[in-house]
Structure formats: structure tokens, C-alpha cells
Fold Prepilin peptidase.
Amino acid sequence: MHLFLVKGFLLGLITGSFLNVVINRLYAKEDIVKKRSYCPHCKKVLKWYELIPIVSFIVQKRRCRGCGDKISWQYPIVEIVTALLFLQASNNVGYQFIWETLFLWSILSGLIVIFVYDLKHFIIPDLVLVPIVVLVLIFRFLDFWSLGSSNLFKNWFAGWGIGIGNPQTVLASIAVALLVALPFAALHFLSRGTWMGFGDVKLAFFMGLLLGLHNALVALFVAFVAGGIMGVILILTKGKKLKSQIPFGPFLVLGTYVALFWGQGIIDWYFSLLL
Ligand SMILES: [Zn+2]
């Protein structure tokens, strides 16, 4: 079990390093796999020992060995966060449920790219969002978890509130996804894209599809509270006006992450307050 967690962490570090490449090359519209990694400043092709996650960053004291240009904090942060999330997913799902673990790792990887990309460029890339939408649809269609599921996934389905095990589940999940995306679409079209980007509408659709209605509501609640707090902090510290742009995608990703791992706990706690 412990070895499984160590493997999850190490695989997360390597995946995080790859996600950095995806984030940079998506923006530069470069091929993600064909070209060797290089310094974005001097274009020097990096040697294998300059590509070791975290270690290279520390050994090289944050500088490129070719031109001495500073390396962005994005690299080690994305690597460490990916590693920790992979570890958390492995630990929550358990080593006997390898497909569930792989599924969660893929979803988390997509969410990490969306988080950083939207923060940097104010765009949620379809090239990342569409594959994870398709992945969720495939897994729902195959009904992967009907035979035996980890507790995390059992809780997750409990949050769905609908039966599983037939093709209607896929249609029902799409209906829920449209329902979650609807208010975002309304905000987007009413404000002509100034309050809510269309990327946020699509991301909300994905959240409904992945999380189901109950957990998606938890995710949206977390996103709006976190976004509100951040907005107040920015207004107080930097004097930013409310209209000035903060991308909302990262908050939606944060909410999705919280709902994915703690959604059912939060729902149970909320209803225990009512009773
Ligand atoms: Zn360089």
C-alpha cells in the first residue's frame, strides 16, 4: 500500500512536468510530444538531467544553464501540486481500484492545466476540456463502477441521486450538466461575455457531468465564496475595481476539487444542521 502511494507521488511529479509542457505549448500552438523540451528564453534544448522535476530547479538555483534566465515558479509548483493530488487520489481510492485511480488522475491533470492556463491567459482550452468531457461520458457509459467501487466513488454516486447501470444514466448526466451550465450561459449571453466567458459555461457543463447535481452545487458554492473572498482581497490590497478581470475558471476548478473529495461529507454536514 505504501509503495503504491510512493508510486502515485512520483508519477504525479513526472506528470506535473509534462503538464507544464502542455500549458506552454498549447499557448505557443506547438506540437506537444514531438519537440524536445527547451528553454523558452534561449531555446537551448534541455538535457535529461535538466528535466528532473523539482531537483533540476533546486540544483540550478532557478536559472537556465544556457542563458541564466530565471525559471518560472510555475514549473515546481505544478509538479508538486500534481504529485500531491495524485497521492491524495491514490490514497482515497485505494490500490485495488486501479481504473478509478487512473480516471481520477486524468481528470485532475486536466483540471490543473485549466487552472493554470485560465489564470495566465484567461482562456479555458477546448483541447483539454473536450477530452475530459469525453472521458467522463465513456466511463459513465461503460458503467465501470457497478461491480465494485471504492468508498470515494460510492459516495460520489450517492450524490447523484439517480440510478446507475443503464444507458439512461448517460442521458441523465448530460441533462444535469446542461442544468448546471444554464445559469452560466444566461449570465454569459445577458452580459455579452463580460461577466462570464463561454469557457466558464463549458466548464460548468463538465462539472455537472462529473459531479452530479448535489456535488456540483457544492462546487459552485465553494467557487463563488472563494471568488468573492479573492475579489474583496484584491480590491482592498491592489485597489482593483470589481470590473477588472479575474478569471473565474480557477475558482470553478477549486470548487470541483473540493466537491470531488469532500462533497458528500459537506452535503451530509449541511443536512445534519437542518435536522
Ligand atoms: Zn535559457
Summary: Residues 39, 41-42, 44, 64, 66-67, 69 surround zinc ion (CB under 6 Å). The longest helix spans residues 198-238. The mean pLDDT is 87. The radius of gyration is 20 Å.
